[in-house]
Amino acid sequence: MGIIRWVMVALALGSVPAAAQVADLRSTTQFRVCADPANAPMSSRDGTGFENKLADAFGEWLGLPVTYTWFPSGMGFIAKTLRAGECDVVMGYAQGDELVQNTNHYYTSVFGIVTRKDGALAQVDHLSDPALKDHPIGVVAGSPPASIMARAGLAKDMRGVDLFVDRRVKDPVGDLIAGVKDGTLDAAVLWGPLAGPRVKDDPDLQFTPLLKETAGPKMFYRITMGVRLPEQEWKRELNSLIRRHQPEINAILRDAGVPLVDDYGKELIQ
């Protein structure tokens, strides 16, 4: 799961079970992760997502086996998983969301444009580029770049999809990328961790980060882990691991194809 509310999908507090009001519900014998079973390339029940690999690394650093509570992203996710005491950490959570307590961020990523390497829009690196006009462009409805595109006069060219779906049966981001590949779309503007891993080994496609945008909303976001609000000690323990193992974390993310940028969204981190 990850990125601001639209990417992680709208999580609702719902009712908080009485047990969830206990100061510290976390397990001391397992690294219990709350995750969507079909949120590729981030999390997946088969363990192939990059957040799965990060969870494995944190479990190793903690000396604990990794276990999962699977629940589809959407209404009630936090209430049914983390706040219910079924699991102890949500990987890939946007910094600043009020539903959880955020750890320190362990990476920062950015929106970008997926194009064909030989396509007419291959050189585009900002959303106000006139070259984008009159080309069909895929975008997730309600995402930050959609607002910029509308202001840039691209509303008629936008082909929106809804991310708030059950991704066990639908794959809107995959559909957009497939559209670019088959020529139905000339570009797709997507969140880097969703798009980068899908195109990194594709001989025909490329992902170009949007590092030159000057108008809001911003195109980069810091990604944290989410823990229960009262659990300060648990947060500090995870923060310590993030600090001590940042190079290993970066290596996992880079290997997956996640575009990493500095904390100000200005430069790619190699």
Automatic annotation (TrEMBL):
The keyword Signal is assigned to this record: yes
Gene3D superfamilies for the chain: Periplasmic binding protein-like II
Keyword Cell cycle among record annotations: no
What InterPro entries does the annotation carry? Quinoprotein_dehydrogenase, Solute-binding_3/MltF_N
Q: Which UniProt keywords apply?
A: Signal
Q: Which residues form the signal peptide?
A: 1-20
Residues in domain Solute-binding protein family 3/N-terminal?
A: 30-256
Recorded hits in NCBIfam families, A to Z, give: ABC_peri_MoxJ_2
What is the protein name stated in its UniProt record? Answer: Amino acid ABC transporter substrate-binding protein
